[in-house]
């Protein structure tokens, strides 16, 4: 991508589930996912801070498409050079949210209403 502002905007859209990671190619940012292996182009910008709201927006946007939701969770966790999860980890429900992302990566699909209930009911 041409500048880091555009890159961050587009990567934020992927994080929130507004854009499929495969569409990054049209922005000049080719990410490849083949047989469970990820290949990411070099990214020289600052990683995007991820909040629980970002992740919940992604869950919400993709909740009715199990395959895409699973692939999205795998992308978010694999793209450590693009996303900074430390803010998420510091949030009160951050560990639970990360655990849900890992569950989704393994194909353990969680309906949105169950996920929200699970995250808000935990003490």
Summarize the structure.
The chain has helices at 4-15, 52-62, 66-78, 86-90, 94-105, 112-121, and strands at 32-34, 37-39, 48-49, 83-84. With 123 residues, the protein is mainly alpha-helical.
Tell me about this structure:
This protein is mainly alpha-helical. The protein has one domain. Helices cover 51% and strands 8% of the residues. The longest helix is centred in the middle third of the chain and has 13 residues. The model has no long low-confidence stretch (mean pLDDT 82).
Domain unit count:
1
Number of distinct beta strands: 4
Mean pLDDT: 82
Low-confidence stretches: none
- Helical content, roughly? 40-55%
% residues in beta strands: 5-15%
- Helices, by number, come to 6
Structural class: mainly alpha
Largest sheet: 2 strands, antiparallel
End-to-end separation in angstroms reads 42 Å
Q: What does the overall shape look like?
A: globular
Order of helices and strands: HEEEHHEHHH
Strand order of the largest sheet: 1-2
> What Rg, in angstroms, do the CA atoms define?
14 Å
Which features would summarize this protein structure in a list?
123 residues; two-stranded parallel sheet; two-stranded antiparallel ribbon; mainly alpha
Topology:
Blueprint: H1 4-15, E1 32-34, E2 37-39, E3 48-49, H2 52-62, H3 66-78, E4 83-84, H4 86-90, H5 94-105, H6 112-121
Helix pairs in contact: 3-5
